[in-house]
Write a structure and sequence with these properties.
By secondary structure, the protein is of the alpha/beta class. Helices cover 27% and strands 21% of the residues.
């Protein structure tokens, strides 16, 4: 999981770049063929309702919550719009060594060593630098998206879109957007909506490709307007209680804030566990 939305500035993405890349990759790849389009557009989260972000463990959400995000290993919340969390651009900690052993070509390396997220050193960056590797990564991860749909989730959020900012220049924004396009096509084919995760500087270009945005600490980094300007009411915002600079009441009073904004503990522990924090505007 990503616990900060702070990214280094990426170069501007050309309008329409993602759909063009998606078409080219899907037509040219035999490893990740284009799935059939769904019969109807996926349902979006109900705008403005309460949000809960439960990546640290599932629990009964507080009263008034209508949208809930849970890890793909959990079950969706009955009766609520449920978003399935997947790490699409870096390995999950429990899978890192297995991926490195079974599919070493999919892991970005530098000097023969896997490139790690410095904040999450048990996560390796996927190598998104070539069409061949992107197609293989998609082939590895698209079944997880399909499983989210099979399990009853309504949408997916794909984490670490901004991994190129942690790649020491080995990856580019275009590399990651090309892979993101494959995830978007796979989610829509499965009947799922798909959310952009963080990467505020890309929101304006990606709002026509992704369906909504899940953002962390947009108030802290003064990025909320970038998301709401692109996605309107379809911005689902999380701030963290250990940020001593945060005045959550003031954040809630900001006229341009996302309609759905919550305060959580950074470890996202389950309700009742030590350190649990939950509040919403």
């Amino acid at each position: 999981m990503r616990m900060t939305s702070r990214t280094s500035p990426g170069r501007q993405v050309s309008p329409g770049l993602v759909p063009v890349l998606v078409t080219a990759l899907l037509l040219g790849s035999c490893a990740a063929p284009a799935p059939a389009a769904p019969a109807a557009p996926p349902a979006l989260p109900p705008a403005g309702v309460g949000l809960d972000y439960q990546l640290g463990g599932a629990y009964d959400p507080p009263a008034g919550v209508g949208v809930i995000v849970r890890d793909s290993t959990e079950s969706p919340a009955a009766g609520l719009y449920s978003v399935c969390y997947l790490n699409g651009f870096q390995t999950q900690p429990a899978d890192s060594e297995r991926v490195l052993t079974d599919s070493p070509d999919l892991v970005l390396t530098d000097g023969g060593e896997p490139v790690r997220d410095e904040n999450w050193p048990d996560e390796f960056l996927y190598d998104t630098s070539t069409a061949q590797s992107r197609s293989a990564i998609a082939a590895l991860l698209l079944p997880a998206i399909t499983a989210c749909a099979r399990d009853g989730f309504d949408a997916v959020e794909i984490d670490n879109l901004d991994s190129f900012t942690r790649s020491a220049g080995l990856l580019t924004v275009d590399d990651n957007l090309a892979l993101a396009g494959l995830f978007v096509a796979g989610a829509h084919a499965a009947g799922l909506a798909i959310g952009q995760k963080n990467a505020a500087e890309l929101a304006g270009e990606l709002a026509g490709t992704f369906d909504f945005a899940v953002v962390e600490e947009c108030d802290r980094w003064q990025e909320c307007g970038l998301y709401t300007g692109a996605y309107g009411d379809q911005v689902w915002a999380i701030e963290y209680a250990d940020d001593l600079r945060l005045d959550f009441a003031s954040a809630c009073a900001e006229p341009g804030r996302p309609r759905s904004m919550i305060l959580r503990d950074r470890d996202l522990v389950a309700a009742g566990a030590p350190g649990y924090v939950y509040s919403r505007c």
